[in-house]
Amino acid sequence: MTNPSDLFAGRVAVLATMHRKEQAIAPVLEGRLGLKVVVPSGLDTDAFGTFSGEIKRPSDQLTTARLKAAAALRHTGETLAIASEGSFGPHPQIPFLPCDRELVLLLDRQHQLEIVGQILSTDTNYRSQSIHSLEEALAFVKTLNFPSHGVVVKAVGDPGADPFIAKGITTPDGLIAAVNQALALAPDHTARIETDMRALYNPTRMAVIAQATEQLVQVVQQTCPACGCPGFSEVQRFPGLPCGDCGTPTLLTLSVRHRCQRCQFQQSRPVPDAPLTAAPSQCPYCNP
Fold first, then answer.
1. I need a surface site. Which of 4, 13, 164, 240 has the fewest CB within 10 A?
2. Does the structural domain 4-124+201-221 have CATH classification 3.40.50.300?
3. What distance in Å separates the CA atoms of residue 104 and residue 43, rounded to the nearest whole number?
4. CB hemisphere CA count around 58 (13 angstroms)
């Protein structure tokens, strides 16, 4: 089969975003795959959920990215779409550590392909805190890379009342005004400050989106050994990497299974560049 990039070279890819994600995604895809990324006007991606909570995400992270990409194709009539979706919360292995899971999806209706790149990163300023005074607010935002990273201010109070929310705050004056208004409107004079996780207000997240896009390109370039289809991607991990001292199987990954979405060929492989054995500290026998 020809180079996987040849499937996309010279084509237009519509990017489902209204938060300037093209700054992170377009340079990677245009430089590595030769396609042209365009952002369609009039596509409301906030309809698929907002980080600040006014609109709930309709489904899980991958399904929501699929919905965004499909909406971009309907909106433009093109055959190639890109969608990005982020999720923030505790690290799955280290619960006290916040993390950012970014997913970038390529949907190609011409070749009936769906290819996903994703990355889990602890490089995030994702945080929130309730405050009761302007002084508390000013102290908290110092920990959030403000003002280079935006924040959201909300009034805390009666759920049935009209909520106050100010987003995209990137100046001290804007922060002071929003906090004073939120404190005045809240029945118990409590406001909440959150990091604004929209990409255009969060350079740290924008960088992680770029990393997920690089990973997408890597998956595109992984071709099926049986039919040559691009996107020969990981579908399952198997534990059992042996301890380097005693040989006991550990919970660390021994092999990874890949599957072709076109012909369904499967193949299990060792993790690339991974050690052949686990450290004794990871062993249930050596370190019970």
1. 240
2. no
3. 18
4. 11
Contact (CB, 8 A) for 192 and 156: yes
Sorted by where each begins, the domain ranges of the chain are 4-124+201-221, 128-196, 225-288
Integer angstrom CA distances of residue 267 from 135, 230, 236, 262: 58, 15, 10, 14
pLDDT of 281 higher than 80: yes
Map residue 5 onto helix, strand or coil: helix
8 Å CB contact between 34 and 58: no
**pLDDT, tens digit, 9 for 90 and up, residues 167-208:** 999 999 999 999 999 999 998 899 999 999 999 999 999 999
Identify the pLDDT of residue 272. 80
Amino acid at 25: I
Q: Are 24 and 206 in contact (CB under 8 A)?
A: yes
Phi, psi at 79, each rounded to 5°:
-115, -5
User: From the CB of residue 168, how many other CB atoms can be counted at a distance below 10 Å?
Assistant: 13
Sheet holding 151-156, edge to edge: 128-131, 190-195, 151-156, 165-169
Of 94, 178, 97, the C-alpha closest to 138 is 178
Write the pLDDT tens digit of every residue in 114-128: 999 999 999 999 999
Return the CATH number of the domain spanning residue range 128-196. Answer: 3.30.1490.20
